[in-house]
Amino acid sequence: MRRIPYVITDVFTSTALTGNQLAVVTDAHQLREDELQLLAKETNLSETTFIYPRDAATERERGVKVRIFTTDEELEFAGHPTLGTANVLRGTSGAKEVALELRAGTIPVRFEDRASGPAYGEMTQRDPVFGQIMDRAAVAQAIGLTANDLEADLPVQTVSTGLPFAIVPVKNLAKLQTIPYSWQRAQAFLKSTDAKFFYMVCRETVDPSARIHARMIFYNGEDPATGSASGCAAAWMAKYGVAASDEKVMIEQGIEMKRPSKIYVTARRDDDRVVNVRVGGSAIEVARGEFTLL
User: Fold this and answer.
1) Is the pLDDT of residue 142 over 80?
2) Are residues 267 and 238 in the same domain?
3) Which of 10, 119, 164, 226 has its CA 20 to 30 A from that of 18?
């Protein structure tokens, strides 16, 4: 019998049972390749990560090797798994930085202890790549709205800091909160674009301290917090003036599914380029256990 330890942590929150859940397998060396996807299906969370510990010199040079799976596929990069896994690796060591070697490259996560509550962690994502500007009416139809429901002065555009999202600016909070979204309809449209998912945002918010309200719905349901998309949104906000260069703003997400999340983002506009995309928040451990496999 193989005993495979794991941790469950809630990410982009300081309160247990809110934020985005993550399962972290702390040593995946005992697992066969085909078991990774099966275990991700077993947890049935939006993502499960698998840590492959290596010797200290290699980890100092390249970071801790981590693989990220949804219930259906392996990802090059994802935000809340990066922050949550780094938080698990940091443990109680008090380390100021943990670097993860992902398929998308090495991502550093820097930590800052707080007087009360969990530490604040912040990752620096890859510099954004701005892609296709999409037809507003076609996107609106794909997500169940009309062209008039989308902001006229902001583009629907694909942005990637490791995973490509189409940022969709919705005018009205009530419209976004009650959107008749169909993943099958959205996916049919997305297949003809350079984006993998839609990240729907609105400048009307529930919390007055938030800059935008966001939702992301995909094949495994609604995501309470999408760190990879938040980095894309940070770059988009900096490019189009929704946030100032180097201004730290909060994105609220997960409210509709009663798992509220707070995601803090920053990006720098340098002439026509956007760089230094940072995404941060807190994470809190809620469970530990073992998978028992023959």
Assistant:
1) yes
2) yes
3) 164
Is 47 one of the annotated active-site residues of the chain? yes
The total of structural domains in the chain comes to 2
Whether this prediction's pTM lies above 0.85 is answered by yes
What tokens were used for 207? Answer: 């919390």
Q: Which structural domain range is residue 244 located in? A: 129-279
Q: Return the CATH number at 177.
A: 3.10.310.10
Cα separation, 83 vs 140, in Å, equals: 32
Q: Which is the catalytic residue, given 35, 47, 151, 252?
A: 47
Instruction: Specify the pairing of strand 249-253 against strand 261-270.
Output: antiparallel
- The position carrying tokens 């988009």 is 236
> Residues 235-293: pLDDT tens digits?
999 999 999 999 999 999 999 999 999 999 999 999 999 999 999 999 999 999 999 99
* Cα–Cα distance measured from residue 160 to residue 277, given in angstroms and rounded to the nearest whole number: 11
Phi, psi of 238 (to 5 degrees): -65, -40
